[in-house]
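Predict the assembly for these four chains.
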Amino acid sequence: MRLTTKGRYAVTALLDLAIHADQGPVNLADISRRQGISLSYLEQLFAKLRRSELVCSIRGPGGGYRLGRKPQSIRIAQIIDAVNESVDATKCQGKGNCQQGETCLTHHLWQDLSEQIHDFLGSISLSDLIARSEIKRIAQQQDKRHEMLTPPELDGARIAATFLQ
Amino acid sequence: MRLTTKGRYAVTALLDLAIHADQGPVNLADISRRQGISLSYLEQLFAKLRRSELVCSIRGPGGGYRLGRKPQSIRIAQIIDAVNESVDATKCQGKGNCQQGETCLTHHLWQDLSEQIHDFLGSISLSDLIARSEIKRIAQQQDKRHEMLTPPELDGARIAATFLQ
DNA sequence: CAAAAGTTGACTGAAACAGTGGGGTATCAG
DNA sequence: CTGATACCCCACTGTTTCAGTCAACTTTTG
């Protein structure tokens, strides 16, 4: 059983994507800035998410990623599965041949735990997360901070206008 | 969050210890044989279990390990903690400073999950496991197999006796 | 066409796991 | 006292995975 930064990044990125879905395709550079995840690493994760059809890509300028399904039908467990992090806690992937073909002493314990975790993460969808108030608040703060970090000074016309005042 | 062979080994070994507790101190060589865990690796794990006072050791011939407390009061979560495997799923160990001092988007999700897992493993004690019928059955089989694997032929007198028949 | 965006693959340093090996030290039986 | 038994401790190693970097693509749109 493994649950590390990798799976957390994947869920965070997909949640960010879902929150900003109304503004058209979301590109990875924006997610990278807002969530503080390395761009190249995001690319790797989204390659896997695309293979699992959790997202679809739009290439070219103005392109980016879009959710592959409705946020109600994307479960957290599926996201974690997609980036190759198993939610299984048994040694034998549930086969029961943990100790030289026999079932090991604690097999049933880990099996029960796996079920517990899977039920929990499988019962939560992206839209459930979006609906949570704390998440709305955090996302708004991130958007604001992001606006400040992408200053309008990059817009040539604006620089000129300020300059010519 | 990490739950690997290490934590599973620790729980398995301690369960084996608890099951054979009535026959006096249990030595690691026996646990190693019964559970198929490398002896040297067991020594490392038991060093940690001893530091957490989950077991106490008796040195010298006839020595071995004994449970440090009653099996009812040893929770699975404590065993996993003792071998340094965290049951915490958040990036920030629950502190909430996951993203440059701010709470990350998915912090609450991982916090809830951690709580779920911790409640589950914290609600189960060693004595709960011993009581389970499947575990009793598996332990009996392991004992039988072990008897066959440690043949009395190693006893010099017996070899001689057989030889002289 | 040129720039923006996704796509792919190779590569890397660090960490952790799982395990090995070897030298101890305490304790008890004979 | 001695030797066997068992714990105790430390250094080391091979493998895997994580997290991230870099570079060279291709596709698409303005």
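Chain B has a mean pLDDT of 84. Helices of chain B lie at 5-19, 28-35, 39-51, 76-82, 107-122, 126-131, 133-149, 156-163.
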